[in-house]
Amino acid sequence: MRTIVEIIAAKRDGAPLSDAEIRHVVDSYARGALPEEQMAALAMAIWFKGLDARETGTWTDAMLRSGTVLDLSALPRRVDKHSTGGVGDKVSLILAPAAAACGVTVPMVSGRGLGHTGGTIDKLEAIPGFSADLTVARFEAILGDVGCAIIGATADIAPADKRLYALRDVTATVSSLPLIVSSIMSKKLAEGIEGLVLDVKVGGAAFMRTLPDARALAAGMIAVGERMGVRVIAFITRMDEPLGRMVGNACEVAESVALLEGGGPPELRELIVTLTGAMVEIAHGVSAAEGRARVAASLDDGAARSRFGRMVAAQGGDLAALAPPAGETVVRAPRAGWVTAIDGMAVALTCSRLGAGRRVASDPIDPAVGVRVDAPRGTRVTADAPLCTIFHGDAGPPPPEAVASLAAAFSLGAEPEPTPPLVVERLG
Ligand code: URA
């Protein structure tokens, strides 16, 4: 095998690395035996020269094996979903219980929000008492009983990724496609799943801004899943304006419960039926249409709502104790017009600054802070009509600049413009 310096030089010059070399590099790094400067140099070489499908698969497998791989083989039909991150993306809160109600086991290991996107764990932790920090034995017990459970990433799931992600963050190498693919897939495959549905977001408020980039990410993740014997279906979905009406933590839980009880925005329900339907399709080997029909029925007959209640209770949460906001500030339209676009990134950043998100991992979150979109895309508003409402947290009413930036996030046109569907395409 080549030395580490020769391996870095080979990748720098565009040569492929052998499987043994990749495993050696990732194992050494995970054990602390590879200096940060050598991994940084290799990450930059990969940023420029890439990894082919074999190399990406081996890199992912090595990262996955750097930590615990859950053995949930006693549980049937294990399928999860991963989203590349959006604004107002509360899909997991509804999808996991809906899939469980359709006979799918959903062992979801989820993240906290960082940057402009919110995290599923932060949303669930807005429910007083909810614990996302369970032992594997308790996780498995809830999965066996309820069919779904959602926990935070533990220190022993893909630890090599944890170190490498922090290094990429400070070496301008986060945006390397094979490193993104292996980072996401190593954590998801550590759940011991048989199938995975991917929601790859594209647009102004997404990680991937263009359709070709989103397609490449989806294709890379599908290829790795297939190499590792996991069936993957990916959807590329639009992330320009917030998903649903609520952005925040407690308010997104409230919107999820409303949807589970038959309400909620229709486009959010449609996305959930599509994504969850694909999980049912994988789990039961049925058609996409049958998968969708089963999910829609679970939302309509209360089965998904009942699973959600059982999952929250099993994880210690008390839904009835979900706190209302301390107050509200209405953001009004400066003039009449049609809402032709909502800048989801601006909404997310303002909401985060008000306390709903964090700038660094150690920042606390105020669960009560949030924004409700009162005039969704396609609405006609009169001058002074509500565009959105800010929910106050412990810090009280928002400063005027937050109100101004939210008002500016709404584009008002003289004519209505059609809102394209959320699902752009399906792959895999
Ligand atoms: N999300 C991840 O988990 N890893 C990446 O590299 C990028 C986004």
Please outline what is shown here.
This protein has 16 helices and 13 strands.
Low confidence ranges: none
Task: Summarize the biggest pleated sheet.
Answer: 4 strands, mixed
- Proportion of strand residues: 15-25%
Number of domains: 3
Head-to-tail CA distance between termini: 36 Å
Write out the strand line-up for the largest beta sheet, numbering strands in chain order. Answer: 1-4-5-13
Name of the CATH homologous superfamily of the largest domain: Nucleoside phosphorylase/phosphoribosyltransferase catalytic domain
- CATH architectural designation of the largest domain: 3-Layer(aba) Sandwich
Separate helix tally: 16
Mean pLDDT: 96
User: Are any ligands bound, and if so which?
Assistant: uracil
Q: Choose one word for the global shape.
A: globular
Could you name the CATH class of the largest domain?
A: Alpha Beta
Class from secondary-structure proportions: alpha/beta
CATH topology of the largest domain: Pyrimidine Nucleoside Phosphorylase, Chain A, domain 2
Describe the structure.
With 428 residues, the chain is an alpha/beta fold. The chain has three domains: 4-50, Up-down Bundle (Transferase, Pyrimidine Nucleoside Phosphorylase, Chain A, domain 3); 79-320, Nucleoside phosphorylase/phosphoribosyltransferase catalytic domain (Pyrimidine Nucleoside Phosphorylase, Chain A, domain 2, 3-Layer(aba) Sandwich); 328-413, Aldehyde Oxidoreductase, domain 3, CATH 3.90.1170. Helix content is 45%, strand content 15%. It has 16 helices and 13 strands. The chain has helices at 4-12, 19-30, 36-49, 53-64, 91-101, 120-124, 136-146, 159-169, 177-189, 211-227, 250-260, 266-284, 288-300, 303-314, 344-356, 400-408, and strands at residues 79-83, 106-110, 148-152, 195-202, 231-238, 246-248, 328-332, 337-342, 370-373, 380-381, 386-391, 410-413, 423-427. It has a four-stranded mixed sheet, with helices on both faces. Helix 9 packs across helix 10. The longest helix has 19 residues, at 266-284. The model has no long low-confidence stretch (mean pLDDT 96). Uracil binds at residues 165, 174, 179-180, 183-184.
